[in-house]
Amino acid sequence: MSGTPGSPMSVYYFSSLVLSNGLLLFAAVYSVYVFAHVRQTNNLQWFVAFLFGLLCIECLNKCFIYLLEWQDTSFTYPVYVFLEFFCLSQWIALNLGFSKRWRLAATLGGFLLFIEAVKKWSSGALFSPWFSKIILHLLVITGMATVLLKYIREENMLSPVLLLYGVVILYYTTSLFLFLLLDQLTEVSVRISYLIWGLNNTFSAILYGSSIYVFYRLKRLR
């Protein structure tokens, strides 16, 4: 992203990016550690896979940018879309007790999203609003809200995992809003572009930081 180096918005964007990536690294590694040492992790295995998959994609992007000096890494975005939908839909299905048939349908949906994302990437319209991506966000929001309400009714006391469900809902709600603004980025200033991407990084950092806290609490409770 180009712009005036040292401007407040560019500093905010790059600071939020460093914070988000750092927290993602710690969250992914720590969640795997806790999952390996704690028998009961409240059906969080798919969320652990989600975090670790995101870390792998970010590492690949950094290798392409800094080692191979490729400026455009948008070709990895279709993989991110598939990973995002596959892991989160499996997580929701597991928590709601859906059958394997529903989980297979969710996997098929992930492949369809991957194919559409590849088509969008090849046509240069990857970051413009597209119907399936919007549906993905809405399904995650409604699915996680259903899971959250289910556990609120069942739990006699508040569990730290409930915080994670709530933060996932918050992240995907704000992410959907920011995604709908992406088609306007070519018409706004670079300063506003820095602000929008910086907000996305900030909410990502909140998600990863909350993940670290939840896994820490789970480890302490066990």
TrEMBL record:
Keywords: Membrane, Transmembrane, Transmembrane helix. The keyword Membrane applies. The chain crosses the membrane at residues 12-35, 47-68, 74-94, 101-118, 130-149, 161-182, 194-216. It comes from the Bacteria. This is Uncharacterized protein.
